[in-house]
Prior knowledge:
Strand order of the largest sheet of chain A: 1-3-2
CATH class of the largest domain in chain A: Mainly Alpha
Order of helices and strands of chain A: HHHHHHHHHEEEHHHHHHHHHHHH
CATH topology of the largest domain in chain A: Neurolysin, domain 3
Largest interface: A-B, 39 and 39 residues
Number of strands of chain A: 3
Radius of gyration of chain A: 22 Å
Helix content of chain A: 55-70%
Number of helices of chain A: 21
Oligomer: homodimer
Structural class of chain A: mainly alpha
Mean pLDDT of chain A: 96
Strand content of chain A: under 5%
CATH architecture of the largest domain in chain A: Orthogonal Bundle
Largest sheet of chain A: 3 strands, mixed
Amino acid sequence: xxxxxxxxxxxxxxxxxxxxxxxxxxxxxxxxxxxxxxxxxxxxxxxxxxxxxxxxxxxxxxxxxxxxxxxxxxxxxxxxxxxxxxxxxxxxxxxxxxxxxxxxxxxxxxxxxxxxxxxxxxxxxxxxxxxxxxxxxxxxxxxxxxxxxxxxxxxxxxxxxxxxxxxxxxxxxxxxxxxxxxxxxxxxxxxxxxxxxxxxxxxxxxxxxxxxxxxxxxxxxxxxxxxxxxxxxxxxxxxxxxxxxxxxxxxxxxxxxxxxxxxxxxxxxxxxxxxxxxxxxxxxxxxxxxxxxxxxxxxxxxxxxxxxxxxxxxxxxxxxxxxxxxxxxxxxxxxxxxxxxxxxxxxxxxxxxxxxxxxxxxxxxxxxxxxxxxxxxxxxxxxxxxxxxxxxxxxxxxxxxxxxxxxxxxxxxxxxxxxxxxxxxxxxxxxxxxxxxxxxxxxxxxxxxxxxxxxxxxxxxxxxxxxxxxxxxxxxxxxxxxxxxxxxxxxxxxxxxxxxxx
Amino acid sequence: xxxxxxxxxxxxxxxxxxxxxxxxxxxxxxxxxxxxxxxxxxxxxxxxxxxxxxxxxxxxxxxxxxxxxxxxxxxxxxxxxxxxxxxxxxxxxxxxxxxxxxxxxxxxxxxxxxxxxxxxxxxxxxxxxxxxxxxxxxxxxxxxxxxxxxxxxxxxxxxxxxxxxxxxxxxxxxxxxxxxxxxxxxxxxxxxxxxxxxxxxxxxxxxxxxxxxxxxxxxxxxxxxxxxxxxxxxxxxxxxxxxxxxxxxxxxxxxxxxxxxxxxxxxxxxxxxxxxxxxxxxxxxxxxxxxxxxxxxxxxxxxxxxxxxxxxxxxxxxxxxxxxxxxxxxxxxxxxxxxxxxxxxxxxxxxxxxxxxxxxxxxxxxxxxxxxxxxxxxxxxxxxxxxxxxxxxxxxxxxxxxxxxxxxxxxxxxxxxxxxxxxxxxxxxxxxxxxxxxxxxxxxxxxxxxxxxxxxxxxxxxxxxxxxxxxxxxxxxxxxxxxxxxxxxxxxxxxxxxxxxx
Lengths: 502, 502
């Protein structure tokens, strides 16, 4: 390879290291940092974000990028081309954004995250609103600096799902909604719907933590390269494949929340742990998009974790931990109880059918917010109105409504749609995996996940950012992304459980 | 103040933030990081150290420093002058050291720290020796780059104790040794020496942790601005006054180890928490020297924690936690048991009299190592020889010998002498505090520490780096640093406990 290319990767590795450090600063803030550390942490984040930006926009990096691209030899190795493509994409965006704005966003995001946590704990929206206003202004400013054609929201969406457009998302979401509404209607009319009572009881957080560790290890999560902790909002932080941390949150009265949060985050972590070690610290060595990232968490949470085969294995582990409660429970009943479809207030606890309605709601709100059609002060009311419209529910407190998610407090507007993409990619990948691994269900029923994990490592994790997300989908499944596999999965699974024709 | 001065402080704040981040990377590595994170963490540390160096040596900072110094108005406010003095001192050192060396030292230190932890756990010196060799070479290179007059060791010592010279340390240490040898001889001949059997038993780590929290809170440690965790080697990391974390280490068969480790680290933490909030992130807003830092830990560990008044209060807390074991123990007996003088292998558990011999031993070894008179391969043997000479003990394993301390694994040569300085400064400050607070002993006997803490805040913590350590000592005590107050304290205390004339 050329000298310019080698030097370019060396320069980029410092940017990558600072990215890992930003992740650690966030992990630490949410998991272990004492409360009075907030102001100092916000400054540290601003400093790192500013320095990272300096490195990215440095003229030397631009010159090396041009030089390396000009000298790139024809080769069978696809990595150099992907590295240059990814680096150019990120640099092109960075050079348009003023350094001051980058640092300010990092600092305000850190302070707002802390304000959100307090506002959520106390159920006091006014503690958070002023900070949120500031973040909205800053991100609107960023979007205008980056530039956009059709609408401002596209400039933000692009950061998390490169190349995606709000109008395309809307088309997909409309197709989703149109597919799901009749399903929901049919399920509502089912003669003998399942209940999730089986999951309720008294479950000490320490026992749930222990169960989470067993499940994560069974999934293939490597505890010598990771940790499981508790936090207000479950999340995953991967600094490099040797250090990928997950958190969960435990409800001592309901086992489902923590168990499936752990599996969800474990799915994210398996992606991070499976990124190609040979390309750690290279531009193309990290996750290609948040939609693809989310496909991995949803696969493990829902397609595996709430699938009949794995629930059979899970039932045994629950019986080991709580023999009184689960010793006599039939796996089929547990499976039905894990798949109750019921509109609910909290997104991360939503079932597979109604989950996407939560995303539609959030995307509509943030699109309007970023576009300037609604203001931060309108949000609690707007939230209530949309929850009423899409989920037919009343929002009793902001804590269970507009304050439930951490994302906006970090300035992450344009991020939510990637969750729905994750559901679609996940179902499409899973259908392909089942074709390639004929006895997959039998393996999962024995708690054997290595077949599926191996397939994901080869087809999804290992390629990292070698191909754009859409291309990756075509390579893995032979088809472009569509709502078909997800809707087919939902119809087959819930038609069977609810005993209705879908 | 001038524009140049304001801009200078803005630039320095980024250097300060990176310093806090280096601290977090270390804290995380020693307390929570999964084992496979080591390589990535070493790279992150190298990147941060390199960027910090870039900021420090940037020509802009040099120009602003000159400009601000030239424009500095006469003023009653001593901070601007101190800020310029401290910044100039640090920059003068930094510009002499190549960037490559800074990054390499950070990366090698991180890898060596991990190798040391493994070597110590397995008692296998060869796992650590090659890494240590590399670090010695790098730090010798650094010393030569910085420059020195009398001996290379001075260039390293200066980093931790600005202005100190090895020859002066030797003079102080000789005076110490000459004062302590007759004390040790007299104690050896005492008719009824105390024993520390009272501290031995079975004490669950969780209970010790709980006791540690009670004691730390009583000392004035603020848990909303800090944490207490367990680690192989107890330490304190302060990122800013709002986030100062301590660790301890628990021996379930011996209560003294963990209790006094917590008080020791708590003393360091009180200094960090007491640094002037108005000057956070300024060059003169941090600790002036490690000798002064250590004076604070030794004050709380020994002068308070092992003093008769506070032991009376402690006895009550021990009786609360372990009524069976401590309910009937007399405070006087506990006091005697906390002050057994007996040469021992582990420095951090050494008594007040023999502790300094551990430092003499280490300083002699590292001075010879840095000077080139001994090699890394000689260290285990040399260690045994010196422990025999100074402490009259056989070293059964390297784990209890040359591998016991973390410092060399981090490349910290020239750091150990500051521990002995801490004992001297601590005793001299404490003597002054007792003069100013006539009923100090009565306060401590009631577990009231606010009088002492307030005095330390005003006289030692608040001034931060306003005055060089020696000047601070003169201002606080009216005298230059000497061995007098420490030796007087030792003679009075142990003469009384051992019933001998000293």
